[in-house]
Each structure stands twice: as structure tokens, then as C-alpha cells.
Amino acid sequence: MNRHPHIAVVGATGAVGIEMIKTLEKRQFPVGKLTLLASARSVGKKLQFQGQDVTVQELTPSSFHGIDIALFSAGGGISREFAPIAAKAGCVVVDNSSAFRMDESVPLVVPEINGADALHHKGIIANPNCTTAITLMALHPLHKAFGVTRVFASSYQAVSGTGAKAIEELENQVSQVVKGQPVTHEVYPHQIAFNVLPHVDSFLDTGYTKEEMKLENEGRKIMHHPTFRASITCVRVPVYRAHSVAISAEFLKPVDVESARRVLAQAPGLDVVDDPSSNLYPLPLKVAEKYNCEVGRLRKDCALDNGLCFWVVGDQLLKGAALNAVQIAELLLR
After folding, report:
1. Catalytic residue numbers, as ranges
2. Which residues pair with 53 in a beta bridge?
3. pLDDT confidence band for 119 (50 / 70 / 90)
4. Could you give the angle at the alpha carbon of 42 between the alpha carbons of 41 and 43, nearest 5°?
5. Which end of the chain is less enclosed by CB atoms within 10 A, N or C?
6. Which CATH class is domain 132-316?
């Protein structure tokens, strides 16, 4: 790999694409050249990188000649079409969509957990679902210490997970409610302002949504834990950009709060914020735009044997997407 690689961001004008560009700059990734790719309607837009304007180009099958690493965040359809083309052109794709996550030939990577898997790629590496990544930042260190068997969880997911239009919809609805105007909605099936929707992604025949199955399916692959079980209800909440997850986890070994706290305090990419007597616990408002996830509200689960309850929060656009992708690219350079 070139020490100063030519990087492409696919879906550069979307919420995650913009964060990818910012993250490359903030982490001083040694970008030799940056190419920004998007659909025809975004062509000619200019985005800033290291004080320079970079013009957005149209994504075509011939876009990947000479590119070393492509960070994709343009949706599953685009990834399925263009990622194999990019890989064939000799580019390593880090894909943020769900298109390749469960493909056995594609590593699914959270660098703090299974970074070594990234090195066995065949041209494509998958970024996990945002809720999965944020949950596992706290769950995996506990699994290594105590052996997790199953979790029951509820997620409280920010509108950024649906994209830039959803952020705009929440802003508009808050303004409409405050002004006493009729509330309009296009992105979500119901008003999201001052409301919560127990509906993230599409419903399956089982009554779960696709999003709700990702923690179990992706968690098994990332943690190399084929018997891991997860029952989760995913909820969309009127928060702009950080996801929160309430978790009850059951372990093989007895677990107490102090041991768990010691394990979590040493976990990379995670901060323990846990002093309820001083009203200190992770808050999505405070975690927004932070690289590290936060964990708190640690307590013994009173309904599970060897159980622990905790609350984990992470920035959906960063650890849930752009930051994780850039960290994977950093692994490739090593």
C-alpha cells in the first residue's frame, strides 16, 4: 500500500461522506490525493479538505483507476454495483452499507475488536451497522472477560442514521410544532419531533426489523462468537446524531460491577462515565462529535443469572460510520 494513498470517498455529499472527509483531515490521515465521488446531481459541488476546495465528480465504472482506498457511503445498491468494480481495479473498498456485511468472503471489522480480520480482505472490507458497532465497543471487552451468552437490549437511535434529509425533517418539525403549524413528514411514516418510533428499517416476517437482527448476526461475526444471541427493539428518537443502547447481558462467568468497571476502563475507544449520584452518565448530546463511545449506568441485572445492565452511547456518524471506516483504512496502511 502506498504510504500516501490516493483516497476516494463515494457518496461524498451525504451526512456520512462529509464526516469521512472531516475525519481524514482531523486524524491527519496521510492522503496523497483525494477524489470525491457522488451521483450526477452533486457533480461540481465543492467540499473543503485541508483548506482546499475539492470538486465532486460523478461516480462511474471508470472512477477507480489509480485509487488505493475507497470509502463507500452511498447505500447498498451503489455498493453492490460499484464495490466489485473498484476492487477489480486494484482499490481496497471500505463499505459502510449492509451489502457485504454477512458475505463470508468479506471481513466485517471494528478495529478495536477484530482489526486483524481486515488484513484478510479480497478487495472489500465491511463497516458494521452503527448500533452494532457502538454496542460492541462496551460488550466485547466484557465478553472477553466473562463470556457473553445473550443480551436483551433497546436502542435509542438518532435521526442521522437515516441521513441528512432526516436531520432536516426533525429540524423542520420542531419549528412547525413551536409555531403551531401543521406538521409535515416525508422521511418517516410518523412525526419524529417530540415522539419515538419503535421502527428502524423494514419489518421481517418474524415481527423483528432488519435493524434488530443486525446486532445478533453482525455481533457473531465480529466477536467470532457463533452462538451469541441478541433480542433487541430498535427505536428512533428525536436526537440528531448519537445513538444510545440499554443492554442487559448474561455471561458464563459471575460478573460484579467493580470487575466490569475495571475491564471497561481499560477498553480502547471507550470512556466510563458512571457516577449517578452526581447525575453523570452518558448522554447523546454530550457524545455527539466525540470519537470515543461512553458507557455508564453499570449495575447487576436482577432478572438474569450472571447478568449486567449498562448504557452505552456513541456518535452514529463517527464510531457508527465514518470514524470506523477511517480506522480500517489506517489498519491497511500499517
Report:
1. 130, 243
2. 48
3. very high
4. 95
5. C
6. alpha beta
